[in-house]
Amino acid sequence: QLQLQESGPGLVKPSETLSLTCTVSGGSIRSNDYYWAWVRQPPGKGLEWIGSVYYSGSTYYNTSLKSRLTISVDRSNNQFSLSLNSVTATDTAVYYCASQRRSGGYYFDSWGQGTLVSVSS
Amino acid sequence: ETVMTQSPGTLSVSPGEEATLSCRASQSVGTNLAWYQQKPGQAPRLLIYGASTRATGIPARFSGSGSGTEFTLTISSLQSEDFAVYYCQEFNSWPPLTFGGGTKVEIK
Questions:
Q1: Which residues on chain B are in Cβ contact (under 8 Å) with A62?
Q2: Which of B7, B40, B10 lies closest to B106, judged by CA?
Q3: CA distance B44 to A46
Q4: Chain B residue whose CA is closest to A114
Q5: How far apart are CA A37 and CA A50, in angstroms?
Q6: Which of B43, B46, B98 has its CB closest to that of A107?
Q7: Left (φ > 0), alpha (ψ -120 to 50) or beta: where does B18 sit?
Q8: What is the per-residue pLDDT across B26-72, written as a single tens digit (0 to 9) for each?
Q9: Residues 6+ apart with CB under 8 A from A16
């Protein structure tokens, strides 16, 4: 059973860069079975897929965020990361990392606990 | 991009009764659909994938059905721990991946 854990600052200033890391345990980030994904949820609202990365480094981004977004993988530390620049208050959300199945369906079968990131001066 | 619409927004149900939640896709997604449960302060939990296959450890009272554009999640005999928000997610058009807006199941 995979376990995922997000880490990073809980407060980011407007126009700056939001950076989060997800540490994967209970399995290898080099697995052929998974993409590694970020999903966010603004307070009181629904879920939004941000983007996904494969251990090879291939990335897939939500087009609405693509111009500000970088997702990368650190195979040596079994981690993957999110960087979102030029943030505004609308980027305030709980950010989840998740394992996304790569075959038999692209759904999320394990999730981190989530981390609240607030954008405020 | 496929738009997923869930109804109703809120469903009031008494414990022990059955709940029926709907998810509609703006275009056919085949059976490429998943359902998640989210309780307050918690991450979503995968319930159903492939429209009708229960994920590991999910009780049999949860069942999914449908194909194409119309999907249903049925929770038979609601237990106290089932009161939560439920989301559908399509994965036919990957990438991207899109979620429905959610249905809150509350105690009547």
A1: 96
A2: B10
A3: 11
A4: B43
A5: 7
A6: B46
A7: beta
A8: 999 999 999 999 999 999 999 999 999 999 999 999 999 999 999 99
A9: A85, A87
| Residue type at A82 in one-letter notation | L
Residue with tokens 């703006």: B26
In whole angstroms, how far apart are CA B81 and each of A35, A121, B62, B77?
30, 39, 12, 11
**Local structure of B18: helix, strand or coil:** coil
Burial of B24 (0-12, 13-18, 19+ CB in 10 A): middle
Residues A53 and A70: their CA atoms lie apart, in Å, by 10
Percent of chain B residues topping a pLDDT of 90: 98
CB pair distance less than 8 Å for B46 and A113: no
